[in-house]
Amino acid sequence: MSTTIPRYNEKSFILDSRRTFSEDQGSSIDSNENAFDDMKQIMEEEENEKRTSLPLASFNFINSIIGSGVIGIPYALHESGFGFGVLLLLLVAYVTDYSLILMVRSGHISGRFTYQGIMESAFGKPGHVLLGLMQFIYPFIAMVSYNVVVGDTVTKVAIRLFGMSHDSLFAKRQIIVLVCTLFVTVPLCLYRNIAKLANISFLSLVCIAFILLSIFIRMGSMQAKLTMPDHAWSFMNADIIPAIGIMSFAFMCHHNTFLIYGSIKEASEEKWKIVTHASIFTSFLVTILFGIAGYATFTTSTQGDLLENYCWDDDLMNFSRLLFSVTILLTYPIECFVVRDVIEYSFLRKDSEALTSDKIHYGITITIIALTYLLSIATDCLGIVLELNIYLYGQYQWPKDLMLENKRNQFNPL
After folding, report:
1. Dihedral sign, CA of 57, 61, 64, 68?
2. Which one, of 80, 387, 390, lies nearest residue 239 by Cα?
């Protein structure tokens, strides 16, 4: 049976205190019981206004899944073989869907609605610390990589479109990343409520749709320029493990599960299943279309970044590159929310519903963004770090969920 998340804050404390006082003082206060109920209803409505509908929550979830990983799917199909790669992608989507539902179920079993909380319920304090560290590492490095990609991509496109010299101020990646940080990522990351990013996530998905359309438009002209080898459509190739890594990275969204779950109005397991199924199905549909269109165009010549296959004098694809940078910038805040939440929950608050002061909130956010900016301008090669990041992140998801599921089965074997 699905249940809703218990919400405890200063408002519920006041109501509980007033109700206790009423019981102690007798009928003179009992006459105000209806007024207390009305006050409680008003406060609950105010809390719900801060949350979002199922479609908007799905936009945030889909954006976190397909924001940056989709352009690597054609290369994954090349690595694994086209036919087997499609089956692998379907399997990864199914496993992701199941594990996301299992995570929220684990939260209800343990009564802990944070990623670190359910890890602590399964493995104790060491599990809490390990999860906190890893949950911080993945989105933080992802934010750094987003800045690197935006800096490199926008710089190259700007030089092409505006004919700037390489010595121009706005042809320097450090300046490009700084401008994007100040005017895009900082304002979005300063929000407290992830529900406010839903419309931004929808815009990101519109950008993804245009990029996909551009790939289909260029399919015929690019195929005519390439020679297709005989083994291009082989069912299975040898590099299956790297392909699984690329696909898993594309569907990696577990670290922001409870942030999005908590943003849903009157969240429950049943509502979460709807959001999860809709988000994973949509994400799978988009990724498989990217994979098929990209691989059908370039087959064995497909690069890890699909957009790198296209010429830099192709204005349509240059515009798509800019839109991809926009998509990454609009995915960045979701990762920042996760990093900030880990810091606040680990060091500043024990209640997942409690809020830090504005001063602390802004200070932590600006510090995180500043660190990712400094690291991103210090390097333009994060390949090894990202591979380690993917490996680390996958090591602690299933044991925790399965342990909590086993605990539940001990009490409810059916």
Report:
1. negative
2. 80
- Can you tell me the distance from the alpha carbon of 145 to that of 103, in angstroms, rounded to the nearest whole number? 27
Q: pLDDT digits over 244-286, tens only?
A: 888 888 888 888 889 899 889 888 999 999 999 999 999 999 9
The residue with tokens 């007798």 is: 26
Phi, psi of 20 (to 5 degrees): -65, -45
Helices (H), 299-357: 315-343
Spell out the CATH class of 52-409: mainly alpha
What is d(CA 69, CA 63) in angstroms, rounded to the nearest whole number? Answer: 10
DSSP 149-193: HHHHHHHHHHHHHH---TTSGGGSHHHHHHHHIIIIIHHHHT-S-
SS3 11: helix
CA atoms lying within 13 Å on the CB side of residue 266: 4
Residue type, 185: T
